[in-house]
Specification:
The strands form 5 sheets. A 6-stranded parallel sheet has the order 6-5-4-11-10-9. The protein starts with a strand and ends in a 5-residue tail after the last strand. Helix 12 (about 250-260) runs antiparallel to helix 15. The protein contains 21 helices and 18 strands. Helices cover about 45% and strands about 15% of the residues. It has 2 domains: about 5-350, Queuine tRNA-ribosyltransferase-like (TIM Barrel, Alpha-Beta Barrel), CATH 3.20.20; about 370-490, no CATH class. Strand 4 (about 30-35), helix 1 (about 45-55) and strand 5 form a beta-alpha-beta unit. By secondary structure, it is α/β, with parallel strands linked by helices.
């Protein structure tokens, strides 16, 4: 069954899409959050997820249901939706997480997919091999070969109108993730989870996660929706969306609530450490930290779970709005300041600028230069690539000041873009909103743009008229490019 996935808006590699789920006869707007529902615990009833949070889709574990005699019988007799009491699409996991945690499970792909189909799952998952991080490459390749065999089995099975996922493994080897992504795209399956991310997420290895997701996305190409397994903390939704992930599942909302942990987009706080509630959700407007702490354990757990979901869905709405308005990377930049590991993740994403530029719209809202990382955004890279193809006159002045006579061509020198023709000065992205005080990285990128223009025009006599730039920045220029310090004229 081929999933129908349509993209309606994009920014960076992020996208707003629509996933058609045939069995449920409905659609899911992405990016989408899938709250994890454990059939053995009822922190928040699935019906509450639908009514109070407008949850479009949830995820539960078919292996847990399969291994419990009572739940298995109920699911077969009533169907999964009646068992859980949730009207929308339900995705089911296969037990691969238990395989990773405990080392063994007693079902195979054919059996567990048949069970998921029989109980009415809308999106089913085969038993892939979730290889841990940092294993020897030989183990990662062997595990990946097994996963490929199981995906081949899944693609041959008749699962009716149930969508089936093609998990992407490969441990922490980007080349294997890329290869696995390409194979997954060729299976004809429907949804593409990037697996074995939980250990990396637990250790805040966001830079590694970015490298692996981008590798998988390169292999997948324009294939269907990508699910980042285990990415349930709102602090990373913007970064994950900018990488091109469409689905996230969250057990954190409930697990953290049991431990009196309070989610924010800047990180996790212990309830006992809070003197104020920095949130305007229904829970936080009715309570203070003191009144939350005074609740009995069950009521406190439910209240915190509700807050955790409110903050998660609110952040997802911000991400969607940022994609719609072309401001996703500005949102990522602001979130990156919450934690050093998030900043490393964002900088790693910008190191894949060719990947981002290939997906980023060619026109959108003006770029806001909000941090030194803005100098490495795909809009700057795209302008530099264009400079490599431009021809200019014999004498060229690139200036931060007023034009001078005696030059055949006079362009502005605008950090971080570099040379800007006057006829394009007010067009996107060169009309970016810049701070009054430009940082060193923006100047370095401007000089990089000059180098591209000089390489494309080796016969031109180019002069850079700068406003007191450091010699260490100007030293990046080719030897035949002249410089002129405008401050010396004042």
């Amino acid at each position: 069954m081929d999933a129908c996935f349509e993209v309606h808006a994009s920014d960076a590699a992020g996208r707003i899409g629509e996933l058609t789920v045939p069995r449920n006869e409905t659609t899911v707007e992405t990016p989408a959050l899938l709250p994890v529902v454990n059939p053995n615990f009822d922190t928040l009833a699935p019906a509450t997820l639908a009514s109070a949070f407008d949850a479009q889709i949830i995820i539960t574990n078919a292996y847990i249901i399969h291994e419990d005699d009572t739940l298995r019988q109920q699911a077969r007799e009533e169907g999964l939706h009646d068992l859980l009491g949730f009207p929308g699409p339900i995705m089911t996991d296969s037990g691969a997480f238990q395989l990773a945690e405990y080392g063994d499970i007693d079902v195979d792909t054919e059996e567990i997919l048949a069970f998921q189909d029989a109980i009415g799952a809308d999106i089913g998952t085969p038993v892939d091999i979730p290889t841990p991080p940092d294993v020897e490459r030989e183990q990662a390749e062997a595990d990946l070969a097994t996963t490929r065999e199981r995906l081949a089995t899944a693609s041959r099975l008749d699962t009716g109108d149930m969508l089936v996922t093609a998990p992407i493994q490969g441990s922490t080897v980007p080349a294997l993730r890329e290869r696995a992504g390409a194979h997954a795209a060729d299976t004809g399956l429907d949804v593409f989870p990037i697996g074995a991310m939980v250990p990396l997420l637990r250790d805040y290895r966001f830079a590694d996660i970015v490298d692996l997701v981008v590798a998988a996305k390169r292999g997948l190409g324009p294939a269907g929706p990508v699910h980042l397994f285990g990415a349930g903390h709102p602090m990373m939704f913007a970064l994950a969306a900018a990488m091109g992930c469409d689905l996230f599942d969250s057990a954190a909302y409930a697990l953290y609530a049991r431990e009196d942990r309070y989610l924010t987009v800047e990180g996790t706080r212990q309830l006992e450490d809070l003197e104020y509630l920095p949130c305007a959700c229904p829970v936080c407007t009715r309570h203070t930290p003191t009144t939350l702490r005074e609740l009995d354990a069950d009521a406190r757990e439910e209240a915190l779970a509700r807050h955790n979901l409110h903050v998660s869905y609110a952040e997802l709405r911000r991400v969607k709005q940022a994609i719609r308005t072309g401001r996703l990377l500005e949102l990522v930049e602001s979130r990156a300041r919450a934690h050093p590991a998030m900043l490393s993740g964002y900088r790693t994403l910008l190191s894949h600028v060719e990947f981002l530029e290939a997906h980023d719209p060619v026109s959108k809202a003006p770029l806001f230069y909000t941090s030194t990382e803005s100098a490495d955004r795909p809009e700057v890279y795209r302008h530099h690539q264009r400079l490599k193809r431009l021809n200019v006159g014999d004498t060229v002045l690139l200036t931060q000041g007023d034009p001078h006579e005696g030059y055949e061509t006079c362009w502005s020198l605008r950090p971080p873009f570099g040379p800007v023709p006057p006829e394009l000065a007010e067009t996107y992205p060169l009309n970016a909103e810049l701070p009054d005080r430009i940082d060193r990285r923006a100047r370095e990128q401007a000089i990089e743009g000059v180098c591209h223009l000089a390489d494309a025009n080796p016969e031109a006599a180019i002069t850079v008229a700068h406003d007191g730039w450091a010699a260490s920045v100007l030293d990046r220029l080719p030897a035949d490019v002249d410089t002129h310090d405008l401050q010396a004229d004042r």
